[in-house]
């Protein structure tokens, strides 16, 4: 899912994860789609409460791992068999058991670094427009569990959404409308 | 909740017993209920965690920090002087020479790589086993891994003798023949293993840092500091849509780092095991090296954590229960290492090989028997003190044992490298191996590099994983005020 950019929306804070879970369920049930829960640590069960599916990142890890295996085997096959074959006591140039350690290492290298880069990128791409972190102190990296409904949501209406978030029992409910990089 | 959380009254180490808390009459059907003791003591709030951990990155360092940093920097300077002399004069000034061509440099290399392994074990293996106590120590243990790998990386390079040809170690297209590395060699595997290990550890560490860098950003008051930490945190907001991918990736990284850490020391052991030297040519080497690495690494973590919890007043986060858990790992791995020592002797006898038998008799009763005695005493016997709970929970005992274990583990590698080489098949080529003053300067200097990097790390980055610690706290105790 890709979202249009905007840094306008409504946020409300909760003090404990359980309240935030209930709020996420209610917001999802109310039909909001461009909403997010900002939390200081990953809250168990939040994906289900928000109606999110499992991350697709691990599938790409498998692809990257396979790519690492192919790259390592191709490199050693080219160097040891085609470009510069050496004779070790008449043994075959394609000494595949000796190639396994490096194949394993390159598989891990490609898979691990690729997964990290893709996960960070995916975390940006699949996120609704966020309250700009340089301008708004949501408290979500510190001690608050924040519900955030972006103004890009089709159901968004400043007065109604504000009233909805208040009805969830949130504290510090406010309308955010800052000029800033919404994906920063 | 009507009953207050049992965690709200556990204030410090003195209140911890290392046993579950029994809640009388709160279990099902009116029975008792047992809960684990809290991982964070002192009835801390979420904001207290931010304050206690991030404050060290925000204020001018304490006098204790400056004293430690000055000493570390002096040792780093000594490393610089020794290496400059080594490059200028040549390999004649250090001990490695015929017959012990693999002297101190390979000993130090294996030692430092081993230290690094505990960091990955704590961050990856304990994560997969859902050991929540790892949250207090994983950040600094991972940093320890990175700096230990940096120290280890020096030694194979200077062991080349002509360090300006170090780029010949990597298979890059070239006009020298073409001249490639030999992929059938364990030493070429090592290059890939160590560089992969360094890069993956760095990635794992940085991914873990992202949420905490955002916390430091949100505490910052100076706009430049805010902008810097915002850039470093890659604009982290705490979005659950980002956490979803982040958590999947973190699990994957742990699952990849776990076999990686075993493969790295396995490949390091292949450097020895694929040779035909008596004392090296043994199938026990991979597990023996991996266990030894975890053993020495955990000892180094205990050394560092004992100092860190005192200097930075982190006793509420790195509690005695954490230290006791590490002591248990030390005792287990110490016994496994001791078992490996005895197995080696059994195999030397059972193999019926005269050379193998000679090497092992010579290790214990020969001129380097003192090194073997230090190794066996420090690694197999000293950790037995941890059978006693009182000693596992005594910080002084832990600190002293952890240092003895690291001395023992350095001598383990010394015994393996030196005593297999100094008397080989041909008695006319037998020799001796004595460390020169430059060997000592490089060994001690590498500790200077390690501690300089570690002290800088605790100064600029959160030394405990703030977001992970918050995740294992009881929200009913830790929640902030509602306004």
Short description, anyone?
Chain A is of the alpha+beta class and 184 residues long. In chain A, 46% of the residues lie in helices and 13% in strands. In chain A, helix 3 runs antiparallel to helix 4 (96-125).
Our estimate of the beta-strand percent of chain A is: 5-15%
Mean pLDDT metric of chain A: 86
Extract low-pLDDT stretches of chain B: none
Rg of chain B, rounded, reads 24 Å
Order of helices and strands of chain A: EHEHHHEHE
Rough shape of chain B? globular
Number of strands of chain A: 4
- Total number of distinct structural domains of chain A: 2
Helicity level of chain B: 55-70%
Number of helices of chain B: 16
Strand order of the largest sheet of chain B: 1-2
Structural class of chain A: alpha+beta
**Major β-sheet annotation of chain A:** 4 strands, antiparallel
**Sheet with most strands of chain B:** 2 strands, antiparallel
End-to-end Cα distance of chain A: 18 Å
Overall geometry of chain A: elongated
Give me the side-by-side strand order of the main sheet of chain A: 2-3-1-4
User: How many structural domains are formed by the residues of chain B?
Assistant: 2
Rg of chain A over CA atoms, rounded to whole Å, is 24 Å
Descriptive labels:
heterodimer; A: 184 residues; alpha+beta; 2 domains; 5 helices; 4 strands; elongated; B: 483 residues; mainly alpha; two-stranded antiparallel sheet; 16 helices; globular
């Amino acid at each position: 899912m890709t979202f249009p950019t905007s840094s306008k929306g409504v946020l409300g804070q909760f003090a404990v994860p359980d309240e935030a879970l209930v709020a996420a369920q209610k917001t999802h049930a109310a039909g909001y789609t461009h909403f997010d829960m900002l939390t200081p640590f990953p809250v168990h069960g939040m994906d289900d409460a928000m109606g999110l599916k499992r991350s697709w990142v691990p599938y790409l890890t498998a692809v990257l791992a396979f790519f690492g295996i192919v790259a390592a085997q191709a490199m050693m096959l080219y160097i040891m068999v085609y470009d510069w074959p050496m004779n070790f006591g008449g043994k075959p140039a394609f000494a595949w058991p000796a190639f396994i350690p490096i194949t394993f290492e390159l598989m891990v290298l490609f898979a691990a670094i690729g997964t990290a880069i893709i996960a960070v990128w995916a975390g940006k791409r699949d996120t609704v427009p966020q309250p700009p972190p340089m301008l708004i102190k949501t408290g979500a990296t510190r001690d608050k569990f924040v519900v955030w409904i972006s103004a890009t949501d089709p159901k968004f209406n400043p007065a109604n959404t504000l009233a909805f978030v208040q009805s969830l029992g949130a504290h510090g409910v406010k309308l955010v409308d800052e000029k800033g990089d919404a994906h920063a | 909740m009507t009953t207050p959380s049992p965690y709200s009254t556990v204030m410090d180490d003195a209140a911890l017993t290392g046993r579950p808390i029994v809640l009388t009459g709160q279990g099902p059907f009116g029975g008792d209920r047992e809960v684990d003791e809290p991982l964070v003591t002192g009835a801390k709030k979420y904001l207290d965690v931010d304050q206690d951990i991030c404050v060290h990155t925000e204020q001018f360092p304490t006098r204790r920090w400056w004293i430690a940093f000055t000493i570390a920097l002096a040792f780093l300077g000594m490393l610089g002087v020794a290496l400059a002399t080594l490059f200028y004069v040549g390999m004649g000034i250090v001990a490695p020479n015929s017959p012990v061509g693999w002297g101190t440099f390979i000993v130090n290399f294996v030692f430092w790589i081993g230290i690094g392994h505990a960091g990955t074990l704590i961050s990856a293996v304990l994560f997969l086993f859902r050991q929540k106590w790892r949250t207090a120590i994983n950040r600094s243990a991972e940093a320890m891994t990175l700096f230990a790998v940096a120290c280890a990386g020096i030694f194979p390079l200077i062991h080349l003798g002509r360090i300006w040809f170090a780029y010949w170690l990597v298979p890059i297209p070239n006009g020298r023949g073409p001249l490639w590395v030999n992929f059938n060699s364990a030493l070429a595997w090592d290059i890939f293993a160590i560089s992969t290990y360094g890069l993956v550890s760095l990635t794992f560490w940085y991914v873990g840092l992202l949420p905490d860098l955002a916390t430091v950003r949100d505490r910052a008051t100076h706009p430049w500091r805010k902008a810097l930490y915002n850039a470093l945190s890659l604009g982290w907001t705490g979005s659950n849509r980002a956490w979803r991918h982040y958590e999947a990736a973190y699990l994957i990284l742990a699952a990849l780092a776990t076999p990686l850490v075993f493969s790295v020391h396995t490949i390091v052991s292949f450097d020895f095991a694929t040779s035909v030297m008596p004392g090296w040519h043994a199938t026990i080497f991979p597990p023996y090296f991996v266990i030894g690495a975890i053993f020495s690494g955990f000892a180094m973590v205990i050394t560092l954590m004992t100092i860190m919890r005192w200097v930075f007043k982190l006793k509420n986060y790195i509690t005695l229960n954490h230290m006791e858990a590490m002591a248990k790992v030390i005792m287990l791995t110490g016994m496994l290492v001791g078992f490996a020592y005895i197995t080696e002797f059994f195999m030397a006898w059972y193999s019926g090989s005269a050379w193998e038998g000679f090497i092992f008799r010579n290790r214990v009763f020969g001129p380097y028997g003192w090194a073997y005695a230090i190794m066996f005493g420090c690694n197999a016997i000293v950790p037995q003190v941890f059978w006693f709970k009182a000693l596992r929970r005594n910080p002084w005992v832990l600190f002293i044992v952890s240092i003895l274990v690291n001395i023992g583990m350095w001598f383990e590698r010394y015994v393996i490298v030196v005593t297999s080489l100094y008397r080989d098949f041909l008695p006319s080529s037998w020799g001796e191996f004595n460390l020169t003053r430059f060997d000592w300067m490089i060994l001690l200097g590498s500790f200077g590099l390690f501690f300089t990097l570690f002290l800088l790390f605790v100064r600029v980055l959160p030394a405990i994983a703030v977001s992970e610690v918050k995740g294992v706290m009881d929200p009913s105790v830790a929640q902030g005020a509602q306004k």
